[in-house]
Each structure stands twice: as structure tokens, then as C-alpha cells.
């Protein structure tokens, strides 16, 4: 598994990247909880992670021309395709084993409605769940799934 984002031009070819990368707000307790949930329910290690505040996260935001001035979106880059907000979250659970896949049925709800609910949670996530002063540093076994 690739853990470093490096290339001569600063850009990566999709073939050189992990298949599934989750970008998340690294100081958000709710977002960190979501990442811990994914790690716990992803025994095959399908997902790699980068906080939006990290160098790797910044490079990916730039490469995919995503805003880098606010961190209110959960992002999944899957085989070079970008999913954001509720669509990203539902595509993640769709890849997890077991009953979690059933939640992906919510993809039938129109995206604007799903994202409206997502946006309410995103807007209030610090107030409701708190935030950290810095990103959590995972243990060595999990750290290899985080891009640097």
C-alpha cells in the first residue's frame, strides 16, 4: 500500500494512488469517529486516509481542484473519482462488509436532500461533538493506512 504522495511534478497518476482515499477534517471529533468506525469495519484495509489539514490532503485537494480554504466536507476519492458529502459517506458504507452496505440504499434519496441534512451536521459538528487542537496520531498498525 502506498503511504507517500510523491511525484516529480507534484501530481499523482490515479494508478499510483490507493484505490480508496477518505479525506476528513482531522480536528473534528465527529469526523475522527467516522474514520475510526471505517477502520474498525474495514478488516481488509480497503480505505486509506488523509486529514484535510495534512500535506497529503492539501495535495489531493489541489490535484482534484477542490476547495482548500474550509474543511466542511467528507471526501472519498475512489479510483480517481471524487465523491463528496453524503454521497462520499454512502459510497464508503457500500464498500464495508456486512449489514452496513444496506445504508447505501439511501443513495436513492435525491442528493440535494441528503446533502442538506449533511450540511446541517457539518455546520454544527464542532458545537455538537467538539474539536481537537490537532489531528489524532494513530498507532503504528493503523498509521500505515494514513497518507503523508
UniProtKB/TrEMBL annotation:
InterPro entries the UniProt entry points to: DCC1-like (IPR007263), DCC_oxidoreductase (IPR052927)
Domain of life, source organism: Bacteria
Molecular-function GO terms, alphabetical: protein-disulfide reductase activity
PANTHER family given in the database record: DUF393 DOMAIN-CONTAINING PROTEIN, THIOL-DISULFIDE OXIDOREDUCTASE DCC
Protein's recorded name: Thiol-disulfide oxidoreductase DCC family protein
UniProt organism field: Bacillus paralicheniformis
Amino acid at each position: 500500500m502506498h503511504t507517500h504522495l510523491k511525484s516529480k511534478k507534484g501530481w499523482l497518476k490515479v494508478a499510483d494512488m490507493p484505490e480508496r482515499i477518505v479525506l476528513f477534517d482531522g480536528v473534528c471529533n465527529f469526523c475522527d469517529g467516522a474514520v475510526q468506525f471505517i477502520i474498525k469495519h474495514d478488516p481488509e484495509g480497503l480505505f486509506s486516509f488523509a486529514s484535510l489539514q495534512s500535506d497529503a490532503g492539501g495535495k489531493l485537494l489541489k490535484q482534484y481542484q477542490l476547495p482548500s480554504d474550509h474543511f466542511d466536507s467528507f471526501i472519498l476519492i475512489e479510483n480517481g473519482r471524487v465523491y463528496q458529502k453524503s454521497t462520499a459517506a454512502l459510497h464508503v458504507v457500500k464498500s464495508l462488509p456486512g449489514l452496513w452496505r444496506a445504508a447505501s440504499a439511501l443513495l436513492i434519496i435525491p442528493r440535494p436532500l441528503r446533502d442538506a441534512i449533511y450540511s446541517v451536521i457539518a455546520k454544527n459538528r464542532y458545537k455538537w461533538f467538539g474539536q481537537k487542537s490537532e489531528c489524532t496520531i494513530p498507532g503504528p498498525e493503523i498509521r500505515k493506512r494514513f497518507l503523508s
